[in-house]
Amino acid sequence: MLHTASNRFNAQDLWQKDHDHFLHPFTHFDSFRKEGSLVIVEGDGCFLRDVNGKRYFDGIGGMWCVNVGYGRREIAETMAEQAMQLCYSNVFVDVTNPPATELAAKLASLAPGSLNHVVYANSGSCAVDTAIRLAHFCQSRRGQPSRRYIISRKNSYHGSTYLGMTVGRREGDQSEHFKYVPDLVHHLSAPYPYRRPEGMTLEEFSDFLVEEFRQKIEELGAENIAAFIAEPAQASGGVTIPPPNYLPRMRELCTKNGILFIADEVVVAFGRLGHMFASQDVFGIEPDIIICAKGLTSGYIPFSAVIYSDAVHELISAPDPDVWFTHGYTYAGHPVASAVALKNIEIIEREDLCGNAARVGDYLEERLKGLSDLPIVGDVRGKRLMMCVEYVKDKTTREKLPDDVHISKRISNLCEANGLMVRPIGHLDVLSPPLTITKGDVDFVVDTLGAAIRQVTDELVREGAI
């Protein structure tokens, strides 16, 4: 059970300070000005408590990240012990520390195939930058410096750095008030089966996507393309599971044309789909580079890693006295973060949380599918502990509800009032709970979400919106 530390805080004082001084990621200024923030003060297992003492089941898992759940004392103790022993260590050039070294070896043992080398970063966004810089560096060391272009996909999210936002292309992310890296990234269609062209089978949709990539390679010239970057299952871009055989065929095209395949597993790695890594075990591919963050430390401390293959390492490390890998971060290989990651992975393995994610995740899929009959539910999709519900005005035409209905937020607000947190994204409500979730928790989540959808549907009918 959660403790009662929330009474130590002055709710109104915290709300006001946050309102006056804290610019949050992805702030919508007009609504924030009126409503401010929900102040969370405690977490335990799958549950959170706000500053007023209200308890919530965290169906979002933080931000796709609290894989082992909140309040793990052994992680906190590991953090403290490592901070007392060695709170920081520079790892530039030729200095290391035990936790960073042990973690690199552990990640190499878990990653598929020949992905045996690790570069550390501070966040998923920074890891995306690192992976792309590594791809450019590798292609240049191969003797092909003209390979500059990055191929990405629409509906993708690859972080919030200057480069990450250029690479991603989720609806609404690229604000006209920001600038982006010009003439670097080319975007293909999203592997979004629910919104595939009318009359196209899943197999035909897969053919269409692969052919589009082939044509893009022909248009740009393979000799000018450094890498293709893809989330094996797109997360914030709609929780889309790609059509059959799509990723293996995209991988085959990359290999044939000397294009590096970067798998962005920031969300799916460390158990969310029932495996430590999803690229090979779930989707049947071995990338050249894997990006991971979030579940690497279960959100207990910021950290990320880029894991890459022996073949890439042989190219970048070929003898040349004038070559330096001039990239890295002050906090790369941070000893406290590395120690936390090792303990987090130990917990996942010891408690078979990948197995629990598979078993309970399959049950979550089954129960959520039961919402498909509701009038505004167009699609229920995802895999295991990465799921979403998409709302529509018309189930036959898949027409969306008007934006000003704020359908996902309206439903998530009602869920929140009833003790459940889900994440509203556009016309979707997303679920990514901790891997410790039980079948009883699933029943609460689905029943609460279903009741909220029914209530909001009734309200929309009365309002004449549907």
Give the secondary structure arrangement, pairings included.
Blueprint: H1 11-21, H2 29-35, E1 40-44, E2 47-50, E3 55-58, H3 61-64, H4 73-85, H5 98-110, E4 115-121, H6 124-141, E5 149-153, H7 162-167, E6 185-188, H8 202-220, E7 225-230, H9 246-256, E8 260-264, E9 289-292, E10 304-309, H10 310-316, H11 335-350, H12 353-369, E11 377-383, E12 386-391, H13 407-417, E13 420-421, E14 423-425, E15 428-431, H14 439-463
Parallel strand pairs: 3-13, 5-6, 5-7, 7-8, 8-9
Antiparallel strand pairs: 1-2, 2-3, 4-10, 9-10, 11-12, 12-15, 14-15
Helix pairs in contact: 4-11, 5-11, 6-10, 8-9, 12-14, 13-14
What does this entry look like structurally?
- The protein has 466 residues and is of the alpha/beta class.
- 38% of the residues lie in helices and 15% in strands.
- It contains 14 helices and 15 strands.
- The protein has a seven-stranded mixed beta sheet with strand order 4-10-9-8-7-5-6, sandwiched between helices. A four-stranded mixed beta sheet has the order 1-2-3-13.
- Strand 11 (377-383) and strand 12 (386-391) form a beta hairpin.
- Helix 4 (73-85) runs antiparallel to helix 11 (335-350), helix 8 (202-220) packs parallel to helix 9 and helix 13 (407-417) crosses helix 14.
